[in-house]
Amino acid sequence: MKAILSADRNWGIGYQGKLLVTIPSDMRFFRETTTGKVIVLGRKTLETFPNGLPLKNRVNVVLTRDRSFQVKDAVIVHDEKELMAELKKYPDEEIYVAGGGSVYELMLPYCDTAYVTRIDLAYQADTFFPDLDRDPDWELVEEGEEQTCFDIEFTFNVYRRRSKTTR
Q1: Which residues contact 55 (CB under 8 A, 6 or more apart)?
Q2: How would you write the pLDDT of the chain (167 residues) with one tens digit per residue?
Q3: CA 97, CA 80: separation in Å to the nearest integer?
Q4: Shortest CA distance to 155 belongs to which of 137, 136, 142, 141?
């Protein structure tokens, strides 16, 4: 299982329910990486997608405590047990955890890889991803070339867990 996200210099990932910044090449990387795969996300993250609808050409597994929540073309689960039962239907390498903060927190122990677009700026943030640079269980295995979008410098990085947790 993999996590996919963009994080600022302080590992901030969101503010008031939105991404900190939208970078077209990061969005393209997300789309190209997850198309044809399974994405795991929370209801609030789903609501930030265009028209609040699941992304096309993916299996969207949405975690929500709201038992009345329904959305077309998504698999809705209500707790970790239901989520893990649903994910057993798919190969680990096909599953991408796509946020938000509480879903990353819940699922990171099951991930062996994290695709992180690191943004070389610090934004005002209220949602953070764990600092993988300081976590002894994780190592940076690939640091991409620095890229620029307007005045934003960023890299596409890959982190791997040193020892894998199984589900």
Answers
A1: 31, 34, 39, 49
A2: 999 999 999 999 999 999 999 999 999 999 999 999 999 999 999 999 999 999 999 999 999 999 999 999 999 999 999 999 999 999 999 999 999 999 999 999 999 999 999 999 999 999 999 999 999 999 999 999 999 998 999 999 999 999 755 55
A3: 13
A4: 142
Tally of CA atoms within 13 A in the half-sphere of 67 that contains its CB:
1
The answer to whether the pTM exceeds 0.90 is yes
Q: Are 39 and 54 in contact (CB under 8 A)?
A: no
Contact status, residue 97 vs residue 3, Cβ threshold 8 Å: yes
CATH code, 2-161: 3.40.430.10
Q: Reduce the DSSP state of residue 85 to 3 states and report it.
A: helix
For the chain, what are the domain ranges?
A: 2-161
CB burial of residue 99 (10 Å; 0-12, 13-18, 19+): buried
Q: Which helix (H) or strand (E) holds 119?
A: strand 113-119
Task: Provide the token pair at 95.
Answer: 């599953």
Residues 11 and 8: their CA atoms lie apart, in Å, by 5
CB 87 within 8 A of CB 38: yes
